[in-house]
Amino acid sequence: MHNQPQLFHPQAEAALADKELRANFRGAMDYLRDKRKTAFDDAAEENAIRDRSEAIRQRCLSKLPELLEQLEANCIANGIRVHWAENAEQANAIFTDIIQSHGGTLAVKGKSMVSEEIELNAAMAKEGISCLESDMGEYIVQLGQETPSHIIMPAIHKNKRQVADLFAEHVPGFEHTLDVDTLIQTGRRVLREKYRTADVGVSGVNFAVAETGTLCLVENEGNGRMCTTVPEVHIAITGIEKVVEFLADVPPLFSALTRSATGQMITTYFNMISGPRKDDELDGPKEVHLVLLDNGRSQAFADEELRKTLQCIRCGACMNHCPVYTRIGGHAYGTVYPGPIGKIISPHLMGLDATQDLPTASSLCGACGEVCPVRIPIPELLQRLRHEAKQEPNPGALPLRGQKAAASNTEAFVWRSFALATRQPALYRAITWCATRLRRLIPSKLGPWTRCRTAPRPAARTLRELMAERNK
């Protein structure tokens, strides 16, 4: 099931009408917000962590081109083969070449939103390569032929009955049960055998350290470690913005990520991968590849304000606190990255012509900005993108694909007329005089809204006249 951002409004209406979906999200969001609140029970500590994390991300992004070159050099020195992909097509071609060069037909994947971004599973299926998701949430949505509805918890939109129904349909020998432990063990039993037979392991990257050429992977289930250790070949893929300058930059970001995402002080597993298996080592892959994906990120980087979008560490806290996301879920957005962060990232990845409705799907309450662990000013960026969707790019700015896609001649005429009226005191007074006397002609369905409202009284004198009089 693949929704489309162009159909956001009907998809949102369908989600709002789904009572079971809304109940699933209500319980999950309340739980995650409580967990985060407990993890950040000291306001001073929270502010210190957020300040430091923001400073690290901004420093690293300011040096992004240099750090990427340093990362590449150190990865190569460690034995990691580095590949650059400008877009999804190039990234999928790189995966195809690597896997086919080893005669591979099965890849097991750890959790990776960037692989979702390039639609890796579908692309590999066309080449006769099967990609099996090993993250439990990803495995569940893969069985249901769905996409993740949350960047941290892909199957958060499903309850245990729905998961049990999926297993009963797709897992041979499964006896229907609502016992959560049994459901988890069923998934693990299926996946464990696949690790041993897979030709390739695929993973994402949470932090790529330029100083040491190290790939850091954060997880809770151990599947990421299995994917990157058991198969003979490991392919990691990440967006170019995930690079950090020093190994010392990782602990503060790690702390901010885990507390904000799942309310944990630390996750169960933290993997640091610095190269393939050495001659004297007993486990690990014989080859490690790193795919660095651009896919619109350079466009965001080129603009000093929009560059703040790339500070994101993919914790999902903004989604958990967003009054829109918590009611409609992730699928309604029709994008890989839903919720507030998706509204500001997706226009760079997909263009404003496809995503023009997303920046307006916000109350601008500011909750997303208040909980962001790296202090991305999401409300301000949403307003900027609303402007970009309707206006020509600023002189010298790198335009977004689909710039001015939401422009409306009618809206432009209305605002020009309003601007004209507010600049002409006599015209403004005439309009407000008419509005107070002709409001009875307003359609009856608007009556309750207008009954206790009147147009402002026309000013006796303009501000300019008052200032002139004051300065005499």
Automatic annotation (TrEMBL):
GO terms of molecular function: 4 iron, 4 sulfur cluster binding; metal ion binding
SUPFAM superfamilies registered for this protein in UniProt: alpha-helical ferredoxin (SSF46548), NagB/RpiA/CoA transferase-like (SSF100950)
Cell cycle recorded as keyword: no
Keywords: 4Fe-4S, Electron transport, Iron, Iron-sulfur, Metal-binding, Repeat, Transport
Domain annotation 4Fe-4S ferredoxin-type: ranges: 302-331
Stored InterPro entries: 4Fe4S_Fe-S-bd, 4Fe4S_Fe_S_CS, FTHF_cligase-like_sf, Helical_ferredxn, LUD_dom, LutB/LldF, LutB_C, NagB/RpiA_transferase-like
Residue ranges that the Swiss-Prot or TrEMBL entry lists as coiled coil: none
Range of residues in the leader sequence: none
GO biological process, one term: lactate metabolic process
Protein name: Iron-sulfur cluster-binding protein
Annotated source species: Oceanimonas baumannii
